[in-house]
Amino acid sequence: MLDFKTPWRNRIAGALNALAAENGVNLSVSAGELIVETPPQKEYGDLGIPMFSFAKAFRKGPPQIAALLAERLSTERTDSAASSARGKVIAHGPYLNVFLDRGESAARIIAEALSGADFGRPGTLAGKRIMVEFSSPNTNKPLHLGHLRNDALGESISRILAVCGAEVRKVCIINDRGIHICKSMLAYQDHGAGKTPESEKKKSDHFVGEWYVQFNRDLKAETEELVKTEGLTKDEAEGRSALMARAQELLRKWEAGDPATVDLWKKMNGWAVEGMKETYRRTGISFDQFDFESQVYLLGKQEVLKGLEQGIFYREEDGAVAVDLSAENLDKKVLLRGDGTSIYITQDFGLAIFRHQDWPFDRLVYVVGSEQQYHFKVLFSILGKLGYPWAKDLYHLSYGMVNLPEGKMKSREGTVVDADDLVNSLRDMALREIRAKEREEAVGDPALVAEKVALGALHYYLLQVNPQKDMLFDPKESLSFNGNTGPYLQYMGARISALLKKAGEQGFSGAGSVDAALLSTDAEWELLKTAAAYGEAVAESAARMDPSALAAYLYELSRCFSRFYHDCPILGAENRALAGARLALCRAVERILREALNLVCIPFLETM
Ligand code: ARG
Hints:
Layout lengths: L4 H18 L24 E4 L4 H4 L3 H14 L11 E6 L2 E6 L1 H14 L13 E5 L11 H19 L3 E8 L4 H14 L4 H4 L3 H27 L3 H7 L1 H14 L3 H25 L5 E4 H17 L4 E2 L5 E4 L7 E5 L7 H15 L4 E7 L3 H13 L8 E6 L2 E2 L15 H18 L3 H4 L2 H18 L7 E2 L2 H5 L6 H20 L16 H11 L1 H11 L3 H20 L8 H24 L9
Parallel strand pairs: 4-5, 4-10, 5-6, 10-11, 12-13
Antiparallel strand pairs: 1-3, 2-3, 7-8, 8-9
This protein binds arginine.
C-alpha cells in the first residue's frame, strides 16, 4: 500500500518528543496519535499536522510549537532509516505542513500503480464473509427504474467489498408467491388462456406483467361500479369485490398445493424469471444464488409458530399471529394471517435462517428501498428475540426513490418506468449521437458501443448520488459528454487508450525503466497524488457501503487528468525521457480507470 503518512508520523512524533524532553516538558506522543490532514489549499503543502493539542503541555501557542518543530525538522539529518519521510517542512500558523519530496514519491507511486499486486486492494475486509442481497423482484411485474438503482448499488458494493478482501456472495430472493402473483394468474385465466410470450411476441416478463395490470383494470371497473350502484366507499368496495375474493381463494388453493393452480403458477413464474434474467445479463448484473420465497416461506411460518409457543408472539382475535414491539417504538405487527396464509414478512424469517445455515456469514446486507425501513427494523429485532446471535450482523442498505423528471413512477396504473424500455431509449439516444458525430466507422460496432455508453451513463448517474437520497434520473443529462457523467469518464479512458496505442507505434513499449522523478510540475504532482489515493477511495466506499465515494474519486481523477493532458505535452514532450515518464503516468491512470470503472459497473471502452 502506498502510505506517505506513516513515515512522517514517526518522524514528527520523534521530533516532538525530543523537543519536549529538551524543554523539560512531560509529553510522550505516539505516531498513531498525530492527526494528519490534507491542507485545504495545495500551496500549503501535501500534509498538515495541527499543533493545538500540544499547547497545554508546552505552555506555548500552537504557532510557536509549529515553528520550533519546523526548525528542528529542517535541520535534522535524514539518514536512510527515515528516507521515506523526505521533503520540506514549514510552519503555517498552528499547523506543521509537509511538502513531500516529489521525485521520490512519484517513483513510488508509478511503481506501485503499474505493478503493485495490492494496489487499489485494501485488505480491510480480509477473511470476512459478506452476503449481499439485492434486486429481489416480485414475479408479477418486470424490473423497473427502482430495480436499476438497486441492481447498480448491489452489484457495485459487492465488487467493492470483494476488492477489499471479503469473500462475497451475491444473492437474490425472488418473491414468487402471494396475493400479487395470484392476481396476475387470475387475469391470465380470465383473459389469456392459451396465449404465450411467443404467440404474443413479447419479452416473457413483460407478458406476465401485463396480466397484473389487467387485473387492476378489472378490479377498478368492478369497484367503481359498486361505488356507484351501492354508494360504498372505495375500501368497502374492495372488501366486497368478487375479484379480490377469487384472488384470495387462488392463494389458499396454491398454499394447499392444488395441482392446476401450481401448474399455472409455475408456468407464469418461469416466464417472469426468464425475462428478468435476460435483463440482468444485459446490464452486467449477476448473482451467485437465486432463492425463491416459495421454498422458504414454510420455514418462516414454522418459526412464527415457534415464537408463538415461546410466548414471544401472541394470537389476535381473528387468529392472526402478531408481535407487540411498542416497547421499542415499533408498534404491533402481524406476522401470519388469521387464515393461516403467510404475508411478506413471514418468509423473511425462514430466508435469513436458511441463509445463515447455508453459508455462515459475518454480515448480511439487504439492498432494499427506504420504504421498507420499518420492515427490516422489525425483522432484525424479532430475529434477535428468537435467539439468533447473528441478528446483529444484519444490515439494511436502504436507498431512496428514483423518478424521471416527468413525475413519480406508479406501478398500479401500469405507468411504471420499465427497466428494459429505459435502457433501450438510452441506447438509442447514444446511437443517434454516434451517428450525428459520424463516428460509426471509427467505433467499429456502433450498436455495441451505444449499449455500453448507455450502461455507463445509467450506472454512473445512479451511483454518484448518496444511496439514502431520493433522486431524479435525467436520461439526457446522464448521456452528456461534458460534465460529471459516465460517458465523460468512458471518453477519458478512450482518449488514454488511443494515446497509448499511438505511443506504441512510436516505439514507446512501456517496458524498461522510467525516470518518474521527471514528473515535477503541479499538474503532474496533483495527478500522481490522486492516483495514489485510489485505494483509500475504495476503502472508504466499502466502509460507508456507498459507491458514491468512488464515483466522486473518479470525477476527481478525470479532472486532474484533463488538466495534466492540457498542460503537459506527452508524445510531444521536450525529450524522450520525459515523454516516457508521462506515458508511464498515463498507463497508471489507465489501470486505475479500468479497475475503478468496473467497480461502479461502467464498461471500459477503448474507442467511442
Ligand atoms: N420483492 C420485494 C419487493 O419488491 C423486496 C424483497 C426484499 N428482500 C427481502 N428479503 N425482504 O418489495
